[in-house]
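Exercise 7 asks you to align residues with tokens for two separate proteins.
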Amino acid sequence: MTAVSVHDILIRPVISEKSVAQTERNNYTFAVGRDANKFQIKDAVEAEFKVTVLGVRVLWVKPKQKRRGRQTMGTVPGWRKAVVTIAAGQKIELFEAV
């Protein structure tokens, strides 16, 4: 097996109205790699942000059709999302700046 880095697993945080509202309940949302499993996501969040992860939920965001002009159709690619629950009293500073 090849070694997978933290940056291959955690691509970016998802900053939306819903994900920022869920930070009050210690749920943080990340875009993750297509091949990453829950154990790798948990280890990557704990290593990167020095927090205790209690649970990980993973889902696929489906691709969408988008119109580009009058007749040209394009597709926004699908991606994978993980919602990570951390222990009470801890927080990830990356989301606090928003």
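Second protein for Exercise 7:
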Amino acid sequence: MGLLTNKHTHTHTKGVINRLARVEGHVRSIKEMVISGRDCSEILIQLAAVESALRRTGKLILEDHLEHCITDAINDGDQKEALANFKDALTKFIR
């Protein structure tokens, strides 16, 4: 996966960062649940909650990408590469 060298304005950056911080804390809590021998069904429920939180975060990033990155690429005349990269990312995100 390549790193983007250009910066874009994203509407949801702060929200994405906050969501990821919560997910990070949640994953640490799940790890502690495993270490302490908590019930498997409780752990699975928490894993499902993390997966859902990551999906919602991904949707915010997708919204920003469509509103800003793709728009910027079209305005800069780079739409072909931007759309190809978007299709690849979308395929991996949706699975």
